[in-house]
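Student: I would love a firmer grasp of how sequence relates to backbone shape in proteins. Thank you; the sequence and its tokens follow:
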Amino acid sequence: MIRVEDLSIGYGDEALMEHLEFRIEPAEVFLILGGSGCGKSTLMKTMIGLLPPLAGEVVIGGEPVAADGPPPFGVLFQSGALFGSMTLAQNVALPLQKWTELDPETIDSLVRGKLRLVGLDGFEHHLPSELSGGMRKRAGIARALALESPLLFLDEPSAGLDPRSAADLDELILTLNGSLGVTIVIVTHELSSIFAVGGSCILLDRAARGIIAQGDPRALREQSTDERVSGFFRRRPWAEQTEEGTP
């Protein structure tokens, strides 16, 4: 589904991460992990074409990411990025209005179906401000699914949610992956969500400017001998790791 080859990312002449290499298989839930400020969201923005790579390339479905034409993926940004003056139905309809020639009745039917899929049936005419944070995240996922893309990018989907709402969102992610076969790429550092949904991951490290671990997060937690890796998954303070000699 996705191939990342010798990718360097950053802003201007400053590289945050260099020489990134990984693959994401179809129908996989894939996690991009790392501490705050290491470049997780920058990597996602580069993968979806919002930022140009400093070097290397991202190939999705056999094609490099292009700036024109309908995107071959849906995106949930960390804030939800819903238009506050528009209802949920109007927000979800936007991709369909922009990228298809469907008539209004068909679009309305599809919108209702997507909102029903994420548990928001009956909220079509509500404004984002009238909903909880978890419901806004669900509405953002409904919009990301509007074009029937087989690939979703989710940036910190659990950020700002209470534990129950975060668990409900994790369950929705697993349901979408299992029932629709959607490939889902998640940027997160929430350990509860990581172990609830993750099938495979990469762990970024700011000091190393690259990937320091890849694989099943549960296996990395139990088996990694790298203190940076085990420390991340076991929430060990950085000072405790450096005392044991890890740079």
